[in-house]
Specification:
It is built from 33 helices and 22 strands. By secondary structure, it is of the alpha+beta class. Helix 29 crosses helix 30.
Length: 787
């Protein structure tokens, strides 16, 4: 480079796709001493051989424990692995966790080959545009705040990303068009008698196949759909789902087989955000044949929506009162407690609630009902261990315990487990109160009905280490009647272990009968959780194209014609990724009806996504240039910040393009587009060297030089830094220079105005901006090709 609202029904709820739901799914086994399942104690089940798995499936060792990925052979990758293992794995690697659940949606941080393909973490070849690197630069908090990665450790992660090929992970698979899927469904309906066709519904994974999800992962996603269906069914036997297309991405559901009515399906699809895409490709005759306007839904949305409130209790038919659930299961809890049919275990400190927890099992006709009585942490009330009997029975004059909420895990007739959350009075809840679920709320968001229990209990009931019986056996003061009542309910450890094992094996058998591998994982996650994450995650341009059954080039051509209110979301989409809510608004506009359908109109009408954190977007006037072309760049931020732009040429040499001696005021005002060079700037950028160049943008809320850059506009109009990789390797020195030059941009501007240069305009500063005490920084980058 030279010189250089809730709308109607349930639509708004599911269309917005708040990422808060994701956290409820991400779970890794806990230490058994805290009453939960540990990695080493998971049931064996059916294990898929490691050599049959794609790299996106975390292998499962004998015994069910997840195998932590081994360090890579490549030297740079091995250094990055060591850094991530030291500073990130305790929160983000199943099998390494020191917290109850993986923080946010990341459970495979050490699988470098997997995260390199994850666009919301890594942009291959461009570390400054990779959240994995930029988050580390922003001093992302770890559990051990004294164990933050230093500059050399962060540099190792940067170098690994920088070495990745830019086209890594680009999907070359020919997409299956939506029209092809529609024809496949129509053919199936035409071949089915009218009476049976009324019960047919379809779940598709075609868009994930289009996005180059590996065949082995798609197989586990098919199993995940079967698990969701069977976990919402009161049918007497497990249902094994089948596909109807050659690619095995369209699964057939028979409502009669799973015991659903058409009304339940209509409840499900009332808020389906992609109905405009599906209905545009299905004829009215086919809709009449099935008796519904939307007979087909996407599998990732189905895995999310059907396992969370408000749909989960509706589809399962959960009653509003726990006493009615007991009637459905033909269980009398009070009678079982009085007769000591119930079996109990008490925990002093649960890993989930950080308070007392009582676990209680009742036999049912189809298996078991497991209850947990939970207590709010830190409240001044009698503890479980002072009052181990209750909640309504007492012995020896002892007062019963007073709990704050209950959870139920119960066996359905087909052998699968379902769940319910209830308050202390028995009323059904959609979310567990955060006064109880302190640890889950801190690390992984609110615990939700359905999804959280399905993920935490993916093998059935958890291991339990009772301490009440041991305490009672050594108590020589308590009345005999009280001791006998406690010992009758709290069995020896071997008996409780046997009951847990029986229920797990019963559940595993039911899953295998439905064609499900009980021990499989996808990227460290239980498969339903992984499939639900496919819906909730941020998405890039490639995923949008896959969801439309189109190519990236075709979608890019169409994006330019979309309304102005979508352009910010489109910028995000092209730069890195947009939220699911933003992507859905774009998809609705790209639908065949142009978003004129009723449901699509609701999605489009949702307010634009506003991000609270400092955000910086960059774009170039073109994605590719010819030698000799003039280039312009544009920056936008959602907050006032001070912008630095550094260009790295094909040889790795870095030049600061902005601020420069001719344009020193680098304040980027919130919501305004800053073009560089400006329209009246006395310079232009002309490209002269062939190859890929990168433009790095850093914006800080404090007026200072980014990355320790010190300008000397007496000597250089555009500050040159030499090798960008070598420059950043000196990060500790940069930090020291930054401390000494916090106000350098304003000081340099003042010196320039006083000094002046003959024949060049006197640049006048903007109004003084009040500096913020704490520096917040946003970082991004774009790459463009010079041909």
């Amino acid at each position: 480079m030279t010189a250089p609202a809730r709308a109607s029904g349930r639509v708004a709820v599911v269309a917005a796709a708040s990422l808060m739901f994701v956290s409820a799914f991400y779970y890794a086994p806990r230490a058994a001493t805290e009453g939960e399942t540990s990695d080493a104690q998971l049931p064996s089940g059916t294990v898929v051989a490691a050599d049959q798995l794609s790299t996106r499936i975390t292998p499962v060792r004998s015994g069910g424990a997840v195998a932590v990925p081994a360090p890579p052979a490549d030297v740079r990758a091995a250094k990055a692995y060591a850094v991530l293992d030291s500073f990130c794995a305790s929160c983000h690697q199943t099998g390494r966790l020191t917290i109850p659940a993986p923080a946010r949606p990341l459970a495979n941080i050490l699988a470098l080959d997997e995260i390199a393909l994850e666009p919301t973490l890594v942009k291959p070849g461009i570390p400054d545009a990779s959240p994995l690197y930029t988050i580390m630069l922003r001093d992302h908090a770890t559990i051990d705040l004294a164990n933050e990665p230093q500059a050399d450790a962060i540099q190792s992660v940067r170098e690994w990303i920088e070495d990745l090929p830019r086209d890594l992970g680009r999907c070359r698979r020919r997409p299956i068009e939506q029209a092809t899927v529609a024809r496949t469904i129509a053919a199936k309906l035409a071949a089915t008698p009218a009476a049976s066709a009324k019960n047919l519904r379809f779940v598709t994974l075609t868009h994930l196949r289009n996005a180059c999800v590996e065949p082995a992962v798609l197989e586990l996603y098919r199993q995940a759909i079967a698990k969701v269906v069977n976990s919402l069914s009161w049918a007497p036997e497990p249902v094994r789902l089948v596909t109807i297309d050659d690619a095995e991405t369209v699964l057939k559901l028979d409502l009669a087989e799973i015991g659903w009515t058409g009304t339940q399906w209509d409840e499900l699809v009332a808020g389906y955000p992609y109905s405009s895409l599906a209905s545009a490709n299905l004829s009215e005759a086919e809709q009449r044949r099935t008796g519904t306007l939307v007979p087909v839904v996407r599998g990732d949305w189905f895995a999310y929506a059907a396992t969370t409130a408000p749909l989960y209790p509706v589809l399962l038919g959960l009653p509003n009162r726990h006493v009615d659930l007991q009637r459905m299961l033909n269980v009398n809890i009070d009678a079982n407690i009085k007769s000591a049919v119930a079996r109990r275990a008490g925990l002093s400190v649960s890993a989930v609630t950080r308070a007392n927890r009582l676990v209680e099992r009742h036999p049912t006709r189809t298996g078991s009902l497991w209850l947990t009585y939970d207590f709010a942490a830190g409240e001044a009330q009698p503890t479980l261990f002072a009052n181990p009997l209750g909640p309504s029975t007492r012995a020896g004059g002892k007062a019963p315990f007073v709990h704050d909420g209950t959870k139920s895990l119960f066996t359905l007739p087909n052998g699968f487990f379902a769940s319910s959350l209830n308050d202390a009075r028995g009323g059904r809840l959609d979310h567990s109160p955060n006064t109880i679920e302190r640890e889950q709320t801190t690390w992984a968001g609110p615990v939700e009905i359905g999804s959280s229990c399905m993920a935490c209990h993916r093998f059935g009931p958890a291991d339990i280490k009772d301490v009440v019986r041991e305490q009672t056996e050594t108590d020589t003061i308590a009345a005999r009647e009280l001791r006998e009542a406690i010992l009758a309910l709290y069995p020896p450890p071997a008996e409780m272990e046997s009951l847990v094992g029986e229920d797990r094996e019963h559940y595993a058998r039911a899953q295998r009968r439905a064609g499900i591998d009980p021990a499989a994982h996808v990227q460290g996650l239980e498969p339903v959780a992984a499939l639900a994450r496919e819906y909730g995650r941020d998405v890039g341009l490639g995923r949008i194209a896959a969801e439309l059954g189109s190519t990236i080039e075709e979608v890019s051509d169409r994006l330019g014609s979309l309304p102005e209110e979508l352009q910010l979301s489109i910028r995000r989409l092209k730069a890195s990724s947009a939220s699911r809510a933003e992507a859905d608004r774009i998809l609705a506009r790209l639908a065949p009806d142009g978003g004129r359908g009723d449901r699509a109109a609701v999605v489009i009408a949702m307010p634009p996504v506003q991000r609270a954190e400092l955000e910086l977007l960059l774009w170039a006037s073109s994605d590719a240039y010819a030698i000799g072309d003039l280039a312009t760049f544009t920056a936008w931020s959602n907050q006032d910040c001070y912008l630095t732009l550094v260009n790295i040429d094909a040889a790795g040499r870095a030049t600061v393009l902005f601020p420069n001696e001719l344009e020193q005021n680098n304040l980027l005002q919130a919501g305004n587009e800053l073009r560089m060079p400006g329209e009246n700037a006395p310079y232009r950028f002309r490209l002269k060297t062939q190859g890929w160049e990168t433009l790095v943008g850093v914006c800080s809320t404090v007026a200072k030089s980014a990355d320790g850059i010190v300008h000397d506009f007496e000597r250089q109009r555009f500050t040159t830094l030499g090798s960008w990789r070598a420059y950043l390797a000196q990060a500790p020195a940069h930090e020291a220079r930054e401390q000494a030059s916090v106000a350098e941009p304003q000081q340099s501007l003042t010196r320039s105005r006083l000094r002046g240069r003959q024949g060049r305009p006197d640049i006048k500063p903007e109004a003084k901006v009040e500096l913020k005490a704490v520096d917040v920084q946003a970082r991004t980058a774009i790459a463009y090709e010079v041909r």
